[in-house]
Amino acid sequence: MKFARKLPGPAAAALLALGYLLMLLLPAGAARLGDAKLLSGTVPRPVMEGQLSARAQEIPLVYALYRSRVLSGGEDFSQAGEAATPEQARSLSGTLGELEDAGVLPGFCREAAGSIFDLPGALAYTGREKGFVQKSYQGYDASGNARSVLVQQQEETGLVTVCILSAPLPAPDDGEKTDPERILKQYRAYLGLDGLTDWQKAGRGENSAVCWSAEGQIYLYCTVEEERFALGAVSLPPEELEAIAAGLA
Length: 249
Description:
globular
């Protein structure tokens, strides 16, 4: 710096110090400016292996079941507390009525549930876990056999993810055999899952049917037996869905 050498000693030293300071600050300032631009912009995140697709994540129930499975291994209702039986019976009866109106629960199943709500000495329990609520009602018939209703729902939407009825089921009024596949089709629509387009059937038994979507990592099932009706939705990892597919190949 020839100009600095012409200045008096203290002034030259100050000018040199200022020059060095600017040399240090300019790169740091440029880096911070670059960071600010990155943070203020939208950075696309790649979908990692095993994650739901963007379309599946937009379906509230699918994402809620997936999140519960991935973050905590699923729901645990072992700490459910006792509930008042009259209120529980009314709540469950209302939910079962909604399922019947949606074409998901056969009318004769709701009739069987009504007989359970009339059992004396019944017990009721309610548990909440990770955005889901489980309600159960159990009593004993004159022969000492346990009869029960269990329903799990996503609290945010009220959608039923599990419905299990354990009781003798009367024959349909029209005598026609209940079709589990038809119930599953209605159930998909009820849950808002028709946006997933890769549904596959996993075969069916005489009284049961299952289907799954790899994109949504979700598995649906329905069983209608003489003394049991079961319907539900379960989030499963890709490897388990692949194992199901391989077993059917």
